[in-house]
Write a structure and sequence with these properties.
heterotrimer; A alpha/beta; B mainly alpha; C alpha/beta; A: six-stranded mixed beta sheet; 18% strand; elongated; C: alpha/beta; six-stranded mixed beta sheet; 15 helices; 20 strands
Chain lengths: 346, 329, 485
């Protein structure tokens, strides 16, 4: 079976490569993948982020199937969030003849055996969020550094005359915190008008952030803006209110409670801000990556996904459909695949 | 006059013996029948599975589970239960991707040590008359702790020879099936047919009688636990051969899977009633049940429940067969 | 009868204590080659303990254990006993229920090994069964759990007589006939005589005086851990044996004369058709009646009891069950004696939602006195009691409950005469108060206590006799062949 598949795959790929430059990109996505099947292998569905991630997959793929972009795209979730179980699941998916498997993995390494088997069977493997380290697979990770830079970009535009910025960081020692922080630092260098006057750890929790900010506020001069890592915005605002200090521009992290608070302030006091974070709809982006790869498009194996942003203009629209406790998510389209940047190394 | 009298008296007794025998046969056949039904369903749903590659893909992760089930069966046959099986196998996997890969000698030493620890556990449980559930539950934390110390974050590499070994592709029949058949037959001959096996199983059936017959229960338990440890090591090695790397939680679910496998295969928690062939079949059934659900495309929300339903269904059949075994007077 | 052979084994001043209880004190006893020695006494008199010492499963604290003249007490064990040709068939069955007959045979004969051991073991045990119990109906690959308790006993006995490249001089049979019906017991006793006449030695423990008197060369009587009397069997009579044991000879039952049927008015409290009954006949039991079930062992009596129990549970009318197979049906092995008794009466012992420990204690102590259960403390584990006393505790459990129907599944198996007598009188007393007893028994003597006796054959009740018509001969006849009542 394997030996029959390989030449077929290769010739398909060659044909696609040869034809691709001749076609306009958006239209090229249709014809060749209409009979392909993509599966989502997901290790866990027990929190709201994962539920939204699955919902996003469902929404995107339903539309793709209806539009004839793809034959089918089913999602499978393992019961016990265990690597051996997911490995068995992936092997079953290989057997079922899927052309591509999109994985949110329970372990970066323990699935490598099964992933390799899939690659050997000529199946395209795309991992996201929980990525796998097997070289033959594709990885889509959040571009955390970029979210830091974008926060500073916004502030630079908002305060052209310069501003004092307080940085609320996440959990010390975690790589995500390091990467966002490096983005903030890079942004500060890029925009000399912004001055980082303080740095506290908010541990991605509103209550911890509130305490940390309250503790540091008395020693700080006027704070014009606060950069965050997402999710702790409301706590920070409360710290400022409690200290009787004027509210700075706080960058939010797309959580519903943050956006609601922002909306209230904006309606009553004309408060303005910006919100940025990773979105669970990264699953639909992974779907499009897999679809494009099936279509023959060449991509680097390590990709960075953009962040989801909410601006003053899109606030009302973002908040409208957001359920209580939800996170803003963007529905990606095929075109977003082209905007993905390769990661130097992760 | 005497002969007809005798036959009248013996007739119902003979009938009862036959009924019991039939029920026993049925019970022994049940794991095989469930497996065949499951396989047939899978082949109908997914003809692609009916190939060398298909069987290999579906079953190669069943081999470590079958080995773990055999290990659990050895413990269950002396009326104990090992709740640390999964964490033990995870620990072995972590040893295999770290020590065994980098310092083979140390690695083998550590694995031999693991078997030794199991032997000591058996001795401890017997001589102090401790409940095995408590001891092994405690041990499960120790194994996981050890695994995290060895391999703090997921990774490591299984030795090349190990990876090559589990990927051997024998002609005609996939390795997984050969290993399962050899494992089942070997254990059947050892435990069910050999004189040693009789004594070992007897220790589960009536320990007092075994002691009165002059056998050492301590040695029996130590031997059973050491063998269980040995099969646990094999299971862990086979597993990392397939996954190529490990993490400290890689095999946690094997604890319950192995117990379910033994019971599905016709074993019972007490009384030394176990079946090695059944245990292997039970392990395969569990793995294939997962495949089937995935092929049927049952919604993920229902898959866990459906897997449980299959288990309950097979066990209900077992219970029905058990009722046919007329309780002797 | 050969009572003058050389002494094979002898105890001299042997003693054994369990904590404060002296189970054996100053025992002197010898067993000669070629004799069958009977050992008799109350439950708890120390017979089983003495035999366990001889078999090597318990060690004596003091005295001598002389085998062929040498004291082997130090370091004596099961293996040493076997090396000297001594084996024991224990009272509590020591077969492994999960193994088949041939495999159980192998457990006792380490010499069976190598290729084909299974076949050889099977042939040996089948031949031995055929020799002792002709027409036994047991096959070598039967799983022991599938066999009735009587057949298990047969396997256990036959297994002890098998000899592969070993010495076999002395076999201890501890109540071997307790689970056997009369015909099979007779076969066994004949074999015992043959074995003794062939030069082997047997120690036989039994509560059935007739078989002791008819089989043994000498009988030793034990009481309170001592040997109180050893005589040639022919010098004992039924009455003198009972007397020496410490009981009093039983007066002849006068019951047949003063029989008054309770069936004149009212409706039966229990009416049950045996599951395999071909005609419409039912087993009935009225208030205040003791109803006996008889016939050969394993002919549907126990199933009838189960049927009645199931119906009673279904209709919510209470019924208590006294099991004969203590190990599987009766005792909660890990619980205390008191807990084993009060478990049947938890509703009476409630205070609010919780159990009242004082009431529990009081009930336990009350029944300890009424049943004279021999124990220093009712909170001891149930297994610390001897077999007969465990059975008393099971009776206490049933009688302490408020159920009006009490089912008994051959509960007197292996219980000594004195205890039996005590229990019988309590049964009569309780029946007079209006309780109904349904009693399956293998001992014909016990049927004289019953108001009605149903004889079972092939799962059917074939004969219904009121006490006034009771006759042993009719019971035997209808047990074996067709008889129109």
């Amino acid at each position: 079976m394997k030996s029959r598949r390989h030449p077929l795959r290769r010739s398909l790929l060659c044909a696609a490569l040869a034809v691709a430059p001749l076609m306009a990109l958006p239209d090229a996505s249709h014809a060749d993948t209409a009979d392909k099947k993509i599966a989502l292998s997901n290790n866990y569905a027990g929190n709201s982020w994962r539920q939204l991630m699955l919902a996003s997959w469902q929404q995107t793929t339903d539309k793709a199937v209806k539009d004839g972009l793809i034959a089918s795209a089913d999602s499978f979730t393992t019961a016990e969030n265990q690597a051996t179980e997911q490995a068995a699941q992936i092997q079953n998916l290989i057997l079922q003849g899927y052309d591509a498997i999109v994985i949110n993995a329970s372990s970066p390494t323990a699935l490598n055996g099964a992933v390799k088997q899939a690659c050997d069977a000529g199946i395209i493997v795309v991992s996201f969020d929980g990525t796998v380290s097997e070289p033959c697979a594709y990885r889509i990770s959040m571009d955390f550094k970029q979210t830091g830079i974008e926060q500073m970009d916004y502030l630079s535009e908002r305060f052209p005359q310069g501003a004092n910025v307080l940085e609320v960081r996440g959990l010390a020692g975690v790589s995500v915190d390091e990467r966002i922080h490096s983005g903030i630092t890079a942004g500060a260098q890029k925009h000399p008008n912004l001055k980082v006057i303080g740095e506290v750890n908010g541990n991605w929790s509103p209550t911890v952030a509130q305490k940390a900010v309250s503790g540091v506020l008395p020693s700080l001069p006027k704070v014009d803006a606060v950069v965050t890592q997402g999710g702790e915005g409301v706590g920070i605002a409360q710290a400022f209110v409690a200290a009787g200090r004027p509210l700075p521009a706080i960058i939010f992290g797309n959580r519903e409670e943050e956006l609601s608070w922002w909306k209230k302030q904006s309606d009553t006091q004309g408060y303005q801000s910006f919100s940025i974070s990773s979105g669970p709809s990264i699953s639909s982006l992974a779907f499009y990556v897999a679809q494009q790869l099936l279509d023959g498009k060449q991509m680097p194996h390590d990709l960075l996904s953009p962040a989801v942003t909410v601006t003053q203009q899109t606030l009302d629209a973002s908040l409208k459909d957001l359920p209580k406790g939800g996170i803003v998510s963007e529905t990606y389209s095929v075109d977003d695949v082209a905007k993905l940047k390769p990661a130097a190394s992760l | 006059m005497n002969a007809p009298l005798n036959s009248v008296a013996r007739a119902p007794v003979a009938a009862r013996n036959n009924a019991a025998r039939r029920a026993r046969m049925l019970r022994a056949a049940l794991p095989a029948v469930s497996l065949v039904v499951l396989l047939a369903t899978i082949f109908i749903m997914q003809p692609r599975a009916m190939s060398y590659m298909g069987l290999n893909l579906m079953l190669n992760l069943a081999v470590p589970i079958a080995l773990a089930t055999i290990a659990q069966m050895l413990i269950i046959s002396v009326n104990d239960l090992d709740l640390s099986m999964g964490s033990f196998i995870s620990f072995v996997a972590c040893v295999a991707v770290t020590l065994l890969d980098q310092h083979p000698f140390l690695g083998w030493l550590a694995l031999a040590g693991c078997v030794g620890v199991y032997a000591v556990l058996g001795a401890l449980i017997h001589s102090r008359n401790l409940p095995s559930i408590v001891v092994t539950l405690g041990m499960s934390f120790i194994w996981v702790g050890g695994a995290i110390l060895l391999l703090p974050s997921p990774g490591g590499t299984a030795p090349q020879w190990l990876q090559a070994l589990v990927r051997i592709k024998p002609p005609l029949i996939p390795l997984a099936i050969i290993v399962c058949i050899v494992l089942g037959l070997a254990m059947h001959f050892f435990l069910m047919r050999s004189t040693v096996g009789v004594v070992l199983r007897g220790a589960g059936g009536n320990p007092l009688a075994i002691a009165k017959a002059g056998w050492s229960l301590l040695r029996i338990k130590v031997a059973m636990y050491a063998m269980a440890g040995g099969f646990g090591v094999l299971s862990g090695l086979f597993l990392v051969g397939l996954t190529t790397s490990a993490d400290a939680n890689v095999a946690l679910r094997y604890t319950l899977l192995s117990i379910a496998g033994v019971i599905l295969g016709g074993g019972e928690f007490v009384g030394g009633r176990v079946s090695p062939m059944g245990a292997v079949l039970g392990a395969l059934t569990l793995v294939l049940a997962g495949s089937l659900l995935s092929f049927i495309r049952i919604s993920p929300d229902w898959q866990i429940g459906a897997q449980g339903a299959i288990l309950i269904f097979v066990l209900a059949l077992r219970a029905a067969v058990n009722r046919m075994e007329v309780r002797p007077l | 009868m050969n009572a003058n052979g050389p002494v094979r084994v002898a105890f001299a001043g042997a003693g054994k204590s369990f904590g404060a209880v002296r189970a054996l004190s100053d025992v002197d006893l010898s067993v000669r080659a070629g004799e069958c020695l009977g050992l008799i006494g109350h439950n708890g008199a120390g017979k089983s303990t003495l035999m366990q010492v001889l078999a090597g499963t318990l060690a004596a604290d003091c005295g001598q254990l002389l085998i062929e003249g040498r004291d082997l007490r130090q370091g004596y064990s099961v293996q040493v006993a076997r090396q000297h040709g001594i084996r024991c068939v224990f009272q509590e069955l020591s077969l492994c229920p999960n193994l088949n007959v041939a495999e159980n045979t192998r457990l006792m004969s380490p010499a069976l090994r190598g290729f084909g051991w299974r076949r050889r073991a099977g042939e040996l045990i089948e031949a031995m069964l055929e020799q002792i119990f002709p027409g036994h109906g047991i096959e070598a690959d039967d799983i022991v759990a599938d066999l009735s308790i009587g057949k298990r006993q047969m396997v256990e006995i036959a297994r002890a007589f098998i000899n592969v490249d070993e010495r076999l001089d002395l076999i201890i049979l501890d109540e071997p006939t307790s689970s056997l019906d009369a015909r099979v017991a007779e076969q066994l006793l004949r074999h015992v005589r043959r074995f003794a006449e062939g030069g082997g030695s047997i120690v036989l423990i039994s509560h059935i005086l007739g078989e002791m008197l008819g089989t043994c060369d000498r009988i030793a009587v034990m009481r309170d851990g001592r040997i109180v009397e050893t005589r040639a069997a022919r010098d004992f009579t039924h009455d003198s044996l009972v007397e020496v044991m410490g009981g009093t000879a039983r007066e002849q039952q006068q019951a047949t004369e003063d029989f008054a049927s309770r069936r004149e008015q009212g409706s039966p409290r229990v009416e049950q058709r045996p599951a395999r009954q071909a005609d419409g006949r039912t087993v009935q039991a009225f208030a205040g009646e003791i109803v006996g079930l008889s016939g050969l062992a394993g002919h549907g009596q126990s199933q009838l009891l189960t049927q009645v129990l199931r119906d009673c549970v279904k209709h919510g009318s209470g019924a208590s069950f006294v099991a004969g197979d203590r190990q599987t049906d009766g005792v909660f092995a890990l619980w205390s004696i008191a807990e084993n008794i009060t478990i049947g009466s938890l509703n009476q012992l409630k205070r609010g939602l919780l159990l009242n420990p004082d009431a529990e204690q009081a009930m336990a102590d009350d029944w300890m006195k009424r049943m004279s259960i021999r124990t220093p403390d009712m909170s001891n584990p149930i297994l610390s009691l001897s077999g007969g006393n465990q059975q008393k505790a099971l009776f206490a459990r049933a009688l302490a409950s408020d159920s009006q129907i009490i089912l008994m599944d051959d509960p007197m198996r292996g219980v000594d005469v004195g205890t039996k007598r005590e229990v019988y009188s309590i049964l009569m007393e309780e029946a007079a108060r209006g309780r109904t007893f349904i009693w399956y028994t293998t001992e014909l003597e016990e049927l004289t206590y019953c108001d009605h006796v149903y004889v079972f054959r092939d799962g059917q009740a074939v004969l219904d006799m009121p006490r006034s018509e009771l006759s042993e001969e009719r019971i035997l006849r209808s047990s074996f062949a067709e008889e129109t009542p």
